[in-house]
Design goal:
The chain is of the alpha/beta class. It has 4 helices and 10 strands, in the order βββαββααββββαβ. Strand 1 and strand 2 form a beta hairpin. Keywords: FAD, Flavoprotein, Monooxygenase, NADP, Oxidoreductase.
Length: about 130
């Protein structure tokens, strides 16, 4: 198999087992490289089922998570339209008082809270064959 810039020139048929956040993200990375992807998931397709409230907490996206989403073309949409900025941790003292510890006091960056189910459905909207 000939390589160009570390990537195969030959289109591969790839099976990804698991359509959660990691599986769907990996499938999109591979699809962007020109491979044919078949994605298998045991659970029902979350894009077509009603969302159950309270089943999962939001996902906190740091710089690394945002980079992965940017690589597959959904970072701007997720942050600008669905991200909730979290600038600091809230610490609760035994006496009931609280104080904040910034995530990044030096550069003022923050992490963003996004809905796991929404993000997973958005990743699955890529050009994937879902089985």
């Amino acid at each position: 198999m000939a390589l160009q810039n570390g990537h195969s020139k030959k289109q591969l048929d790839v099976v990804v087992v698991g359509g959660g956040l990691v599986g769907s993200l990996e499938a999109l990375y591979l699809a962007k490289r020109g491979h044919r992807i078949r994605l298998y998931e045991f659970r029902e397709d979350i894009r077509y089922t009603p969302q159950a409230r309270g089943r999962s907490i939001n996902l906190a996206l740091s710089v690394r998570g945002r980079r992965a989403l940017k690589d597959v073309g959904v970072e701007t949409h997720m942050i600008e339209e669905h991200g909730i900025p979290m600038k600091a941790r809230r610490i609760h003292r035994m006496d009931g008082s609280t104080y904040a510890i910034p995530y990044d006091a030096r550069t003022k960056q923050c992490i963003y809270s996004v809905g796991r189910n929404y993000l997973n459905a958005r990743l699955l909207q890529g050009n994937l064959t879902f089985t």
